[in-house]
Amino acid sequence: MGDTVLLDTLEILRKSGNKIPEQVWETVEDAILGAFVPQMTVGNERPCEESDFKQYLLNIGSKLKAIALIFQQIVQNLGCDEFHSNKQISKNHAVHLLILCGEHSIDDKWTTKETIKYSEELLSLLCKLWCCKSVSLMLIGDESRQEYFGLFSVALLSLRPKLEKNTWKTYPAAVSCYQWLLFQVKSPHLSPHLSSVLPTALIILDDFVLDNRICGIKCLNHITDNVTRTELGWSGHGDVIYKALEPLLYQREAAIIQPLVSCLITVLGKVEGGYIRDEPNYQWSRYDDVLEKLLQTMEMEDSLALRLAYITSLPPLLAAAGLRICRWSKRLLHVCGCYLEVAGHSQQKEAQHTLLAVQVFLHQCWPLVPAHSQILLEMLLRLLCDITYKEETTGRELDAEEQHILNLIEDCLVLVVKIAPEQSKMLCLDLKNRARFNRIFETVIDKVFE
Questions:
Q1: Residue ranges for the chain with pLDDT beneath 50
Q2: What is the pLDDT of residue 348?
Q3: Does residue 139 sit in the same domain as residue 211?
């Protein structure tokens, strides 16, 4: 929008009072559509780069500023009731403006701090015009009003041509807008739109670009978390999501592991077992399939970044699987022992999450602890010796992370001794008398066996 057009439009608005001429709405419509991020055909060949949007970034800031000035004047001229009285016009403009703001909702290759600021300002003005308190209410509708409808379906319909299987990679801003719109709608309002939002998330997931896969995983996690178990069962939606996520377990990329496991936990929580959380159904399930693949990969992994990603994801997965992890106890403890051998010397984050996994095992599989007490005590006491040995040799006090690890070790040892007192007493018979390695070690042992 040129300066002359902007000034003419503002002048018309100042003179028009509370009646907005059709000419102004046409100017606003053209300005909004002209500010959309253009199609990038290069996206079919490679991921879009910041240089691809160089031309777009030259004037998008001034375009959004002009649109914001016009809407500020419209807000001054119009009350919300007047704007809402013509639903067709208000709906079209609101949807187009929502999509434009969604494209500039987060920091990305086609956005700047200036465009994000104007996007937030435009959303605030739009909420005033639509007589609602938030973007979420605008999307889902406000039941407190006599005439209400949400804009979510209309916005998805408007975005659909850009998010088809053959076009979505050329419209990266439309993908960002879809994710932003999706995250604004939560339970129970997302359920009616399940068949509309799920295909796009699956299309984004099925890509070779890491960022797109992570985006698809986050969208699927949000969808699964905000619909009911019954709705996921309709037409096998839950099974489709699981089948789409399962192959990603074999991919060795640290950035994808945590969101992937988190999404799988959400999906399995809805599609496995009964409606009662602790229903006693311990037959082989897809929890076991995931644990089998994950533990197998963890055993062979030597990359520190991947090891940390895997072990960080393990405790919540074990907690979600519950008593099912009993059948994996031997393999699980072997993995934890191997990770603690390395983590005790340098990888403190890895040690913390490994100990959390051991804690989950102790709580969930306590009947098996006596049979595995020797392995548990060996790995915990070895790590305790490694951690406390540093304090004695370097002469410095333990830092916050080391102290946290020490507390976790103590908690795990207390649980082992409490659950398997006879075995612990027999295995640690001479520990209190002969193995007095250092002051902190002695203090912890005294607390555990008091």
A1: 81-88, 146-147
A2: 85
A3: no
